[in-house]
Amino acid sequence: MPPPPLPPRLLALAPIVYVGTTLWFLALAVLAVGHYAFDVFPPIWMWTALAGSVLGLIGIPIMLWQRNASRRGARGAQKIR
Length: 81
Prior knowledge:
DUF2530
C-alpha cells in the first residue's frame, strides 16, 4: 500500500526559500553593522550569513526552473503533484 500524499502546505517550497533567503540577508545586515560599527560580532558570522544569502539567491532560479519544467511536462523534471 503506497503512503498517503503529503498535504500541499508541506509541498510549498517557494515560501521556505524566499523567507529563508530574506532572513539570511537580514542577518547579514545586522551582523555587518554590528561588526563594522560596534565590533561586537566575529567576522565568520558575517561570512556565514553572506554564504547563506548567496546560496539562497542561487536556489531561487533553480527552484523556478524546476517548477517551470514540471509544468511543461519535461521528462527529467521533479513532479510535486
